[in-house]
Design brief:
The structure holds 2 protein chains of 2 kinds.
Chain A: H1 2-44, H2 47-51, H3 65-96, H4 99-114, H5 117-132, H6 137-161, H7 165-173, H8 178-189, H9 191-206, H10 210-213, H11 233-241, H12 246-274
Helix pairs in contact in A: 1-12, 3-6, 3-9, 4-6, 5-6, 6-9, 7-8, 9-12, 11-12
Chain B: E1 20-31, E2 34-45, E3 49-53, H1 60-67, E4 77-85, E5 88-89, H2 97-103, E6 104-107, H3 118-128, H4 134-147, H5 151-154, H6 167-179, E7 185-189, H7 197-210, E8 215-219, H8 223-229, E9 232-237, E10 240-246, H9 247-252, H10 257-263
Parallel strand pairs in B: 3-8, 3-9, 6-7, 7-8
Antiparallel strand pairs in B: 1-2, 1-4, 4-5, 9-10
Classes of the chains: A mainly alpha, B alpha/beta.
């Protein structure tokens, strides 16, 4: 009896130690990564990083202003492509979707979510870059937009499903048609959650590099309009990090920190929006 | 079990001079393979309160939701038989359920105000039906909130969220919201079941006042409530209409033993 009890205590301590160890390891890696990037980035960051164009090789200084603007333009294009499709698709799935078509859409979204981003890049290369004849912001944005769709769609659907049916019934019983019920009652009730989901889908693609490599390519100068190759933060990090110049490595760290702050900031904003409930209802 | 021949109830129970508002004939409802209502025929008289009573799952809520076609939105629900309001069919390819629900409003068991302001809740229905004039909307809001005995409690916070109101106030707001589209019939599905006795008394008083202007059908689990507020009572059991008659007669001298068992609390 006593031996059994001691055995149980040992197992208990062992299990606790294992789970605690795993937790500390996870947190440790995260803290180390964030800290290292912050330290490396902060020491390399300067005002000119945000305002200047990349300096020619061998010349000190320079910045990534064109990549920051490029990333913003790419994300804007991605949002224009991904949000309408993802949002409306999510509304369809949550409000109208029944039967086999809906399960097909849902399944397709899950598969799309699992497609390697480089494959999406090559598809957009074939469908957008080749017809236009050169790399462009448009092509890069379309690639990112396609990647956003599954996340935007499923999160919109999930948050709309959280709206209780009693609200839909209340509106229908007042003689509101189905679409009025959806537009004036259901979507407003879930708007906070939906906004969060869309923000997170945007944050998710903000750091994507692979689909941009042969759609937006890169650019050492400003990219006017939407039809020229453009620089972007992730591709700049890639290019600068593998270059043999110490100066470029510093710039890559700085870009990494800026990108991280952007994504982290979006996540914190999303948390903040969700803090008082994703869905408003009684 | 129940003998079908015995459960044929005369559909009309009100005095002969009271016009019929909603006539239901041989209403059958299936949810998938289960039969929720079997051949129910019942006349809802105009400007009277008709109470539907019976144990849980007896079909009374299903019956209520057939009257404004809320069952349309439940997957797998099939409705057969005839239902008419003032002689116009409620079911049929030519009927627009959206237009129909303007004539037949509904108040639900759990109060379900929209997460909007008090004013926007009441104005929702009129706005949906095309009323844009803010003066008219204010008038409607004040009138219906007064009708629902809520005006004095909320007149200073019309722009505050309806979710800040108490449970009883929310339910009266839902009643005001239903009245704002000027329906002819108001269906109430256990409107007071989640409320304390004081709020319940207010709702019952309200029902009493509303019947001069509206036809009311109310589902309730509360025998005393049925006895207090209704003119006619229909007793449902296992998807059948067992008894239908003037409330006083049903409660004091039920013709069917099942009704008596239920009313006296021997089961249910």
């Amino acid at each position: 009896m006593n031996a059994t009890y001691r055995h149980r205590r040992r197992v208990e301590r062992l299990m606790f130690g294992a789970t605690a160890g795993a937790t500390v390891a996870t947190l440790g890696v995260l803290v180390f990564l964030l800290g290292y990037i912050a330290w490396q980035g902060a020491t390399s960051l300067s005002w000119s990083f945000f305002t200047a164009l990349p300096a020619p090789v061998g010349e000190a200084g320079g910045g990534m202003a064109n990549a920051i603007v490029g990333s913003a333009k790419l994300l804007l294009t991605a949002a224009l492509v991904g949000i309408p499709v993802g949002f409306l698709g999510g509304v369809y799935l949550a409000e109208y979707g029944r039967g086999s078509l809906a399960s097909c859409v849902r399944y397709a979204a899950d598969v799309l979510n699992g497609i390697p981003s480089i494959v999406i890049g090559i598809t957009v290369y074939a469908l957008v870059v080749i017809p236009i004849g050169h790399f462009s912001t448009l092509a890069g944005g379309v690639a990112l937009g396609v990647m956003m769709v599954p996340v935007a769609l499923r999160s919109t659907e999930e948050f709309l499903r959280l709206v209780p049916d009693s609200l839909r019934e209340a509106a229908l019983a007042l003689g509101a048609p189905r679409w009025v019920t959806i537009v004036r009652v259901v979507i407003p009730a879930a708007s906070r959650g939906i906004t969060t989901g869309l923000l997170l889908s945007l944050a998710r693609v903000a750091g994507e590099t692979a689909p941009l490599l042969f759609t937006a390519l890169n650019n050492r100068f400003w990219s006017p309009g939407w039809l020229q190759p453009t620089a972007s933060l992730p591709v700049m990090i890639f290019t600068y990090a593998i270059a043999p110049y110490e100066d470029w490595h510093r710039q890559a760290w700085a870009a990494g920190l800026v990108l991280l702050a952007l994504v982290l900031g979006t996540n914190v904003l999303a948390r903040f929006l969700l803090r008082s409930g994703a869905v408003r209802s009684a | 079990m129940l003998d079908p021949a015995l459960t044929r109830v005369r559909p009309s129970a009100a005095a002969a001079d009271v016009p019929v508002k909603i006539a239901v004939r041989e209403l059958v409802v299936h949810y998938g393979a289960t039969c929720a209502l079997e051949a129910v025929s019942l006349d809802v008289p105009a400007h009277r309160v008709t109470a539907l009573i019976g144990p849980s799952g007896c079909g009374k809520s299903t019956f209520l939701r057939c009257l404004n076609r809320m069952n349309d939105h439940i997957p797998g629900a099939r409705v057969g038989g005839q239902v008419t309001i003032d002689g116009d069919p409620i079911y049929g390819p030519e009927v627009d359920p959206v237009a129909l629900r303007r004539r037949i409003g509904m108040v639900f068991q759990k109060s379900n105000p929209f997460p909007k302001s008090v004013f926007d809740n009441v104005a929702f229905g009129p706005r949906v039906h095309g009323e844009r004039d803010p003066v008219r909307l204010s008038e409607i809001t004040e009138r219906t909130l007064r009708q629902a005995a809520l005006w004095d409690e909320v007149k200073d916070r019309l722009d505050r969220s309806a979710l800040e109101l108490s449970g009883g106030q929310q339910q009266r707001l839902c009643i005001a919201r239903a009245l704002a589209v000027e329906p002819e019939v108001v269906l109430m599905d256990e409107p007071a079941s989640a409320l304390d006795p004081i709020a319940t008394a207010k709702i019952e008083e309200l029902i009493h006042e509303l019947k001069s202007a509206y036809t009311i059908v109310i589902v309730t689990h509360n025998m005393q409530q049925a006895a207090r507020v209704s003119d006619l009572t229909a007793y449902f059991y296992l998807g059948r209409l067992i008894e239908f008659g003037p409330t006083e007669r049903v409660f004091t001298n039920p013709t069917r033993p099942e009704t008596e068992d239920y009313i006296t609390g021997r089961f249910g």
